[in-house]
């Protein structure tokens, strides 16, 4: 997981709003395999290693159904340490009969796709070794081909499902945005990410730190010109970006101000919003 620690900037946690906290907790424990780290009546923090927060689910007051064709979450992506871990996840999902939305080979990674009970998209994936990735200049070569499920499942070896392994991290987040050019400027010129794939033109782009295939995906497939969802609807509340040190965070804050973007601090947490209204916590490694 070299791309998910300093000196890189990466996604740390994702915070979702859900309609029914009890329903969602059952799903994330029994179907996804996360564990409870902290729990209150309307909010649960989930982890894969019993110590590191990975996902927070929260039921807001007057919770409403997830709104379609708005900005926000396309999917969050859980990165597993090994291909064999993905094999075990796929076998588990097939055995439980939970509906999959897709299963793909992206050259740089292999992935399965599904959604939680509120329709929040989830990708679970494993990376191929970075030395096998192909670059065309400054752009990573990715595609979407059918997953060789039979080959993958051969690694599962019929072992009992034990949930997600301790080395699991939040690999990336894919966002629905209103305007790709504004989003690219915010994440690249503001937060210092590199544009690593723009082959989709005015429909999707991918940005990363340190040569990863992508830490953040951006698309307008269902959200071109759209507004943000209402604050109480199921969907993305916020996500965190972990910067390598305080100097990097100060540089990012300065760059965002230069672009005219707002940065605030609440209870010691530095917050900003991208041009599509997606809220981001700017954390520093070791203090997150």
TrEMBL record:
The keyword Metal-binding applies. The keyword Metal-binding applies. Residues 10-127, 169-285 form the VOC domain. CDD domains: VOC_BsCatE_like_C, VOC_BsCatE_like_N. GO terms for molecular function: lactoylglutathione lyase activity; metal ion binding. It holds the Pfam family Glyoxalase. Keywords: Metal-binding. This is VOC family protein. It comes from Peribacillus cavernae. The lineage of its organism: Bacteria, Bacillati, Bacillota, Bacilli, Bacillales.
